[in-house]
Amino acid sequence: MELLFFVPFLLLLSSPSVQAQQNITLGSSLTPQGPNSFWLSPSGDFAFGFRPIEGNTSSYLLAVWFNKINNKTVAWYAKTTNPHPVLVQVSSGSCLQLTSNGALSLQDPTGTEVWNPEVVGAAYAAMLDTGNFVLTDADGSTKWGTFDNPADTILLTQVLTPKMKLHGRINATDYSNGHHQHESYWSMTGNIKNLVFNATSAIYITLDNGTHIKITSGKISSTEDYYHRATLDPDGVFRQYLYPKKFSNLYTQAWSVVDFKDPGIYIPRRSAAETNAGTGTCGFNSYTMLDVTNNQTTCNCLPQYSFIDEQSQDKGCKPDFQTQSCDLNEAGATEQFQFKTLIDVDWPECDYEQYNNISNDKCQQFCLEDCLCAVIVFRDSDNTCWKKKMPVTSSNVGNSVQRTVFIKVPTNNNSAQSDLREPNRWKKDKKYWILGSSLFLGTSILVNIFLIAVILCGTYCTTTIKEVPSLHSSNDIGLPLKAFTFAELEKATSGFQEVLGTGASGIVYKGKLQDDLGTYIAVKKIDKLEQETEKEFTAEVQTIGRTHHRNLVGLLGFCNEGKERLLVYEFMVNGSLNKFLFGDVRLQWNLRAQLALEVAKGLLYLHEECSTQIIHCDIKPQNILLDGNFTAKISDFGLAKLLRTNQTQTNTGIRGTRGYVAPEWFKSIGITAKVDVYSFGVILLELVCCRRNVESEVAAEDQKILTYWANDCYRCGRIDFLVEGDDEATFDLKKVDRYVVVALWCLQEDPTMRPTMLKVTQMLDGAVAIPTPPDYSSFSQSLP
Length: 784
Prior knowledge:
single chain, Agglutinin, subunit A, Phosphorylase Kinase, domain 1, Transferase(Phosphotransferase), domain 1, 14 helices
């Protein structure tokens, strides 16, 4: 009888749906429904397989989850590979196979492969008790594992290298990539080796010298009594959790937070689709704080700013007052504005001017006198001041910031500014009634005169002429740009005497403003008045005025007076990159490498991070300027093509400069941001080799075109030929080789094969592996 009693139990254990398999043999498979939907670890603590998505019973994740807890918390889920990982979701008719050749393949109901880990030759697979699902060689070594390709969670014994990222999901039930990715801690401290979640539940960073830096400081809890995980949550906070394995009166069976890392220590990135709201956690003109009482992040607006949408606070904030007009004189600004203070907050990516060894009072005075300045950040330790214009984004908050922020707001007695908090002020002062009545009467008369004029014009005018709207002031375009008079700029440039350069639409002159600092400027005078040029002028003002990045040349103002059209830029002391690459002075290799990365970041901003995607269309050394610190800044947006949010390509006439133009300009296909990627590839090789792409004076015929010669050198394994005579670069051939490989990827004839600028920056940084680029030596040798 006792034997009969145990027979059903033994049969249950042998069922495929619950049987723990240490080694999963080749030929095994899983389906979303039925008895074979997952593989268990030996202890049964973890499972790998198909997990239904909450609220969507027809869709499944390929995932690893905690199998013995009530809510089956997911610790890993499959995403497509770079450059833009996308969540993998499948329907009920799909199938996961461990094929006979040792590959893992996920196929949809039609038999089309939708995901694979790009590994073949595995001897078997295994779901380990650590929560790591692995493909393994015959000798037991791991060929691929979920620990090496994390999603939003790390588990005990998991180690992340600098090339790995945690990417938070959108919310608890939507596993798609959300706002945040945890990667910035790699750049917090130099010589970082790994991020470790060790077997005793401690999380720390290891440095090359063996030093450990704690990430969380929670108490170490028993791994026998608790499950552990650490997750980058949708709000951007990196939290460490534990879950009791056994129920007791002291602990509820639910995940509880052991410790967390405030998102203020790093700058979360938003995806390209969300950059209309800014790249920070809470959007423009805001900062993020962590409420320790409920362990949740909160969005906060700057003083006297309010949320654009109270229901969606991550869309950012707007000022509740009229911002400073660039038509105000300096004395008026000093009287009409004051500062509100915040402590230990910063927006590191948003400053446009820096002062060293300056007093706090002087820093504030400079901001009051600058119509573009909305916020200043002051660091007491070294008396450094940063000026920032609206909007500010990507906040950095916490005790480690150690800076004081001053937000420019109207003074209480500023009658020139509209106070939105006093709707009844007209009822409190008789003079406002008199003023209001006068304005109403005057407006009525003007309206009547206007209507009569319209009627007369409709009667006698038979021809309508459409004109491009002119820009008469900064208010016309809604930007904090200064509207200069032509006389001001003529005086600043001493009658337009010193020429800095010439472009397709005008000449650039050096000038000096008559302000306290004697600010040097670059004035671009557009010397044509055709309709297309007028459109170009308007587009350039609106385009550059809305962009702000440390690797883009800033637009300070404009002049639109009569037939005169001028743009006023910040002056770049060291001029263009052109003279340092092809002149007598050669920049050091480390500086050239840094300049390449800075140009890449500037293009990344234009393509993916500013409010409207911008294709520059004429990237070349002459359009890359260097400031006094030899920081690269992209200039000349006159040829920029703007794409709407739902637009991925545009058709236009051929633009750009010979030697830097992508092949698709000469074909009947749409133009995308990949034309800039191609041009960047040419510049990258020029930075490596310090020579022009087209060099007619080179004796060897096969070296006349740099892009073809670089490809030949790479294929022959002689990268050293490209930097011959450059000792610094010769001793750093590993980086030289990496930069050349990135350039060859950028120069692919097929635009779809070129990487995005995000992937380019990652490859230049060494953050991702770079596969061998296809050989394009068989392409047409005709030079664009």
